[in-house]
């Protein structure tokens, strides 16, 4: 059974329809990447899972359970964590307090989990008493992801985690995403830096105008000349030097 | 020489600190509701009035010292504040901020009129009689009630500090003050945070009212008169910044009292009648030059 499934999802904000029947599946242990041009509804698709917009059609299933149109505070309790693109940390709280807030819905002792997060992101342990707002962009993303992971979620939703970061940090973030994934959390991620994202992805979806356009494994999409020309800004990956931009 | 310094300390510095700690208590509550619920609560002054009247009634009933009945007065005021939130503010939670501001303005008028109906409009004293001040080193005169007021205020501030720094709900309050939207996405129980905010805000406001009553007297307009300096303290400290509110309260209180000292020549620098103007001037100046306040609060 897929961990997460969007079945023919239709919806948007107010009267504006953005998704016109989007289908996305994340199987246990997978990294799935959504790519596509601006305005294709990539972020909206993730928000649809998290109950942040009204769906007029289709279904969202979490391990087979229907969570369509469930409000965000409930979705969190079901073990889905969402890291927004911006404003994804509490800047005036310390790093440790941010992580504690991530565990707000937990009633049990989360100290072991806190230590696991520190092992995953050593810089955070060093700066745990520092206000999160004073950290660098890459470290803020670590806080945001660490905060989400405090719940040991069934799936992690990431909205453009590398947006606005320099290429150096981008590589860092992709390796963090890989680390988190290897630690056992399935990930559904929206990415602007499609090539790098597809290289770490098990599968990818190309959305255009709120529809599914292409679907395949990360490799297949990278090698597809049509996808490459339209969405990856150049010839297919196989056709040129793979070491091109030193991706993770 | 000691006479001159004694005059400055006894009649300006000490009253400034006393007034400042009362303003600070009011401002902490105002800044928390402002930061977390995102609206300027005009009824905050009347909550202070209510605390003072509850304390007065309890003193009449029990004959205890005002500070001894203060916790009960705070509890009663909290119940009223939670009731107001439930009945008048909660329905507007998803509405534009201006609706909440107007609702709080209406609330201000309603609470004040209710207080006038229940307790009458005459001035009351909570502790009749004159207390002799303690005299130290021949020139320093401190009234016992001033010691009580400042000590109570400082104790309450430490309690709030502990709550915001070490408890789960306190941290969640600071988180929600940072970003209500992210707080919701994180799974923080925002209604519980809002409830905690009203409890703390109303308890401190009630304490401020009761302590002011102990310092001077009680009248139905006292909360309204407190509103301007308390707003000034909130803006000075930075909206959403409780520590800023403490500093802001003290600065406003001291500025008001020190402005009437005879700094130049023999006459007061400013006629004491203009005290309220000092708070207003500081508030306007801050809004022009540094709207985020001393502690980098929010700017709306």
Blueprint (SSEs and pairs):
The complex is a heterodimer of chains A (248) and B (300).
Chain A: E1 4-13, E2 16-26, E3 31-35, H1 42-49, E4 54-62, E5 65-66, H2 72-77, E6 80-83, H3 95-102, H4 111-120, H5 122-126, H6 137-149, E7 155-159, H7 167-182, E8 187-190, H8 194-200, E9 203-208, E10 211-217, H9 218-223, H10 225-231
Parallel strand pairs in A: 3-8, 3-9, 6-7, 7-8
Antiparallel strand pairs in A: 1-2, 1-4, 4-5, 9-10
Chain B: H1 2-37, H2 44-62, H3 66-89, H4 97-119, E1 134-136, E2 140-142, H5 144-166, H6 168-178, H7 180-186, H8 190-215, H9 222-237, H10 242-258, H11 275-289
Helix pairs in contact in B: 1-5, 1-6, 1-8, 1-9, 1-10, 2-3, 2-4, 2-8, 2-9, 3-8, 5-6, 5-8, 6-7, 6-8, 9-10, 9-11, 10-11
The gist of it:
Chain A has 248 residues and is an alpha/beta fold. In chain A, 35% of the residues lie in helices and 25% in strands. In chain B, a hairpin with a 3-residue loop joins β1 and β2.
List keywords for this structure.
heterodimer; A: 248 residues; alpha/beta; 6-stranded mixed β-sheet; 10 helices; 10 strands; 35% helix; globular; B: 300 residues; mainly alpha; two-stranded antiparallel ribbon; 11 helices; 2 strands
Question: How does this structure look, described?
Answer:
The complex is a heterodimer of chains A (248) and B (300). Chain A is of the alpha/beta class and 248 residues long. Chain A has helices spanning 42-49, 72-77, 95-102, 111-120, 122-126, 137-149, 167-182, 194-200, 218-223, 225-231; strands at 4-13, 16-26, 31-35, 54-62, 65-66, 80-83, 155-159, 187-190, 203-208, 211-217. Chain A has a 6-stranded mixed β-sheet with strand order 6-7-8-3-9-10, with helices on both faces. In chain A, strands 2-1-4-5 form a 4-stranded antiparallel β-sheet, with helices on one face. Chain A is globular. Chain B is mainly alpha-helical and 300 residues long. In chain B, strand 1 (134-136) and strand 2 form a beta hairpin. The model of chain B has no long low-confidence stretch (mean pLDDT 88). The chains are: A alpha/beta (248), B mainly alpha (300). Chain A binds chain B through residues 50, 72-73, 76-77, 82, 84, 87-93, 97, 100-102, 104-105, 147, 151, and chain B through 168, 171-172, 174-175, 177-179, 181-190.
């Amino acid at each position: 059974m897929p961990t997460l499934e969007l079945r023919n999802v239709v919806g948007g904000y107010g009267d504006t329809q953005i998704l016109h029947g989007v289908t996305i599946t994340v199987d246990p242990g997978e990294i799935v990447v959504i790519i596509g041009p601006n305005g294709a509804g990539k972020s909206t698709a993730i928000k649809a899972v998290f109950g942040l917009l009204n769906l007029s059609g289709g279904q969202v299933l979490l391990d087979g359970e229907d969570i369509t149109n469930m409000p965000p505070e409930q979705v969190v309790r079901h073990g889905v964590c969402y890291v927004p693109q911006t404003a994804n940390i509490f800047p005036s709280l310390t790093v440790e307090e941010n992580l504690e807030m991530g565990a707000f819905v937990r009633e049990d002792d989360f100290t072991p989990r806190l230590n696991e997060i520190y092992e995953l992101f050593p810089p955070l342990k060093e700066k745990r008493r520092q206000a999160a707002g004073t950290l660098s962009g890459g470290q803020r993303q670590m806080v945001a992801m660490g905060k989400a992971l405090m719940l040991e979620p069934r799936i992690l939703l990431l909205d453009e985690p590398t947006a606005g970061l320099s290429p150096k940090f981008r590589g860092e973030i992709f390796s963090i995403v890989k680390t988190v994934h290897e630690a056992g959390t399935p990930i559904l991620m929206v990415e602007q830096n499609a090539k790098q994202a597809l290289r770490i992805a098990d599968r990818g979806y190309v959305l255009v105008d709120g529809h599914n356009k292409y679907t395949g494994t990360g490799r297949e999409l990278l090698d597809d000349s049509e996808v490459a020309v339209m969405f990856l800004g150049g010839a297919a990956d196989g056709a040129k030097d793979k070491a091109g931009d030193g991706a993770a | 020489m000691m006479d001159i310094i004694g005059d400055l300390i006894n009649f300006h510095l000490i009253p400034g600190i006393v007034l400042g700690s009362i303003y600070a208590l009011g401002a902490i509550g105002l800044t928390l509701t402002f930061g977390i619920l995102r609206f300027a609560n005009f009824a905050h002054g009347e909550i202070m009035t209510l605390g003072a009247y509850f304390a007065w009634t309890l003193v009449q009933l029990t004959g205890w010292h005002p500070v001894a009945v203060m916790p009960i007065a705070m509890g009663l005021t909290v119940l009223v504040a939670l009731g107001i939130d439930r009945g008048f503010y909660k329905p507007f939670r998803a509405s534009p901020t201006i609706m909440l501001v107007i609702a709080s303005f209406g609330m201000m008028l309603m609470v004040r009129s209710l207080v006038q109906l229940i307790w009458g409009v005459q001035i009351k004293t909570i502790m009749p009689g004159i207390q002799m001040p303690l005299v130290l080193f021949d020139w320093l005169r401190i009234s016992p009630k001033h010691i009580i007021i400042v000590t109570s205020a400082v104790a309450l501030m430490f309690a709030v500090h502990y709550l915001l720094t070490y408890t789960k709900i306190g941290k969640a309050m600071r988180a929600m003050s940072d970003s209500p939207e992210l707080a919701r996405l994180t799974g923080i129980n925002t209604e519980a945070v809002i409830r905690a905010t009203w409890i703390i805000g109303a308890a401190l406001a009630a304490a401020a009212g009761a302590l002011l009553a102990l310092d001077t007297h009680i009248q139905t307009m006292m909360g309204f008169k407190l509103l301007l300096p308390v707003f000034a303290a909130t803006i000075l400290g930075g909206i959403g910044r409780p520590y800023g509110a403490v500093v802001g309260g003290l600065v406003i209180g001291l500025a008001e009292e020190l402005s009437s000292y005879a700094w130049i020549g023999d006459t007061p620098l400013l006629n004491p009648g203009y005290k309220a103007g000092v708070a207003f001037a500081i508030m306007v100046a801050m809004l022009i030059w540094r709207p985020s306040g001393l502690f980098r609060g929010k700017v709306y």
